[in-house]
Write a structure and sequence with these properties.
The complex is a heterotrimer of chains A (117), B (101) and C (163). Chain A is built from five helices and no strands. With 117 residues, chain A is mainly alpha-helical. In chain A, 68% of the residues lie in helices and 0% in strands. Chain B is an all-alpha fold and 101 residues long. Classes of the chains: A mainly alpha (117), B mainly alpha (101), C mainly alpha (163). The structure holds protoporphyrin IX containing FE (2 copies).
């Protein structure tokens, strides 16, 4: 148990374990009585949208997306926003990701074939 | 490099930050439900992101002809690129086997 | 002193990964907002810029491995984050999933909500798995945490990164 080599790791575990435990105790303690069941808001964005949209999703929904496109294109013009520097970063980052993605996938396929036993 | 003192400090800092991340996840998952006020703050933050960050811009991607055509091009070259990768991968394998044998 | 390419990538990767997780978590729901004081706008900005850097690093790493494969270089790179076995394979696969789901969220947010929701779900759950795996990784490699005792003695385990 008291392995010399793992000493520092255990140190970190103990310290952060203590911090986590104390924070949790404090958080529950100070929340005493205010039982607010937030329902949907307590969930993460992923699970929230999951329960809103993807509960009964099928593959064909993913392919046939016309309905949603029509629905959202009406409201998305409200989201036009941002200063110039944000627009530039948006173009730059989106460009990088979109352009490199096919090459990353193709590279991964290549490595998958070459590395296969 | 691994023996440099400043680098050890960096490694400790990095390791500590990962422990912090785990602590943050545990505290958030096991802690009490967020209060109404916190939920409001979160929603306000999200609204802010729509208006003052890139999230809003990507919400209007459908209206951006330039980026849309870039997406089109990228998906257009994807399949040929994968086919090329498969062929090239097989070629490298076959050539490797022959050289070894 | 020459420092190896895979060594540099490993630590750049570590920094980018930690910041991506931090900014991602802050957006993961109301119960996570406190992590960055509910400043979702900044979290979003940081997450997206770093995601591009992350994609770039991945691209460079894959290109590097492709070149090595074409040249039939078999030697394992001790510090590289992608590879054909063990934790290297794990990071390779999880990275691909992060990038693909991330790109789906990014591109489909405006057009296809069910795809976005599904990708967000995977993206988030994968974060928990990978962060846990990094802790395990630190446990396995925790000799890296040992302080150098005497400057000139060479501890065999600790010279891995230098030539
Ligand atoms: C503070 C955190 C970290 C520390 C202390 C650390 C330390 C190390 C050490 C000492 C090595 C071994 C080099 C060798 O033996 O030659 C290594 C390899 C590696 N690291 Fe990390 N690392 C950290 C974070 C990460 C992160 C965030 C990732 C990716 C998500 C990662 C992925 C890898 C991989 C894939 C290898 C090669 C795997 C292997 O050979 O077993 N590391 N790391
Ligand atoms: C180490 C890698 C990454 C981690 C740990 C990570 C983590 C996260 C987390 C926890 C969330 C919140 C999920 C939720 O709300 O349920 C998120 C959101 C998001 N991530 Fe990532 N992520 C990573 C890489 C990426 C990459 C490579 C991309 C893009 C290609 C990306 C794009 C996004 C997007 C677009 C969102 C939605 C929020 C926003 O609009 O900014 N992520 N990420």
């Amino acid at each position: 148990m008291l392995d010399k080599k793992k000493h520092h790791f255990l140190q970190l575990v103990v310290i952060f374990g203590a911090i986590t435990l104390l924070t949790l105790l404090f958080a529950w303690g100070s929340r005493e009585g205010t039982t607010s069941s937030m329902g949907m808001m307590g969930q993460s964005m992923g699970s929230m949208m999951q329960s809103m949209h993807a509960k009964n999703v099928t593959i064909s929904d993913l392919i046939k997306q016309q309905e949603q496109t029509e629905m959202s294109s009406g409201m998305s013009s409200h989201h036009e926003s941002g200063s110039m520097s944000i627009k530039i970063s948006h173009y730059l980052t989106t460009g990088i990701i979109i352009v490199l993605l096919p090459f990353i996938i193709a590279g991964a396929v290549f490595l998958g074939i070459v590395w296969w036993k | 490099m691994m023996q440099k003192r400043w680098f050890k400090v960096f490694i400790w800092f990095a390791s500590t930050s990962f422990f912090f991340l785990v602590a943050a996840i545990l505290i958030s998952e096991l802690g009490p439900e967020p209060s109404e006020q916190q939920a409001m703050q979160f929603m306000m933050g999200m609204m802010d992101a729509m208006h003052n960050s890139m999230m809003g811009l990507s919400m209007s991607l459908e209206h951006d002809a330039g980026l849309k055509s870039l997406i089109g091009t990228a998906s257009y070259i994807l399949v040929p690129l994968i086919v090329l990768a498969v062929l090239f991968g097989l070629l490298v394998r076959v050539r490797g086997k022959r050289d070894a044998g | 002193m020459s420092v190896r390419f895979d060594f540099i990538i490993h630590w750049l990767w570590t920094i980018v990964f930690a910041l991506l997780t931090l900014s991602g978590l802050a957006m993961a729901g109301a119960k996570y907002g406190w992590v960055l004081n509910y400043d979702i706008a900044s979290a979003d900005y940081v997450h997206r810029v770093l995601a591009a850097i992350y994609v770039l690093l991945t691209f460079i790493s894959i290109a590097y491995e492709v070149i090595r494969a074409v040249r039939y270089e078999e030697k394992k790179l001790g510090w590289f984050i992608i590879g054909k076995s063990g934790y290297q394979l794990f990071t390779f696969i999880t990275t691909l999933i992060f990038i693909i789901t991330g790109a789906i969220i990014w591109v489909c947010m405006d057009s296809n909500m069910s795809a976005t929701a599904f990708a967000l779900y995977i993206h988030e759950k994968l974060t928990y798995i990978v962060v846990a795996s990094v802790i395990w990784h630190i446990y396995v490699k925790c000799h890296a945490l040992l302080w150098p005792k005497k400057p000139n003695t060479t501890d065999k385990k600790n010279v891995a990164g230098t030539k």
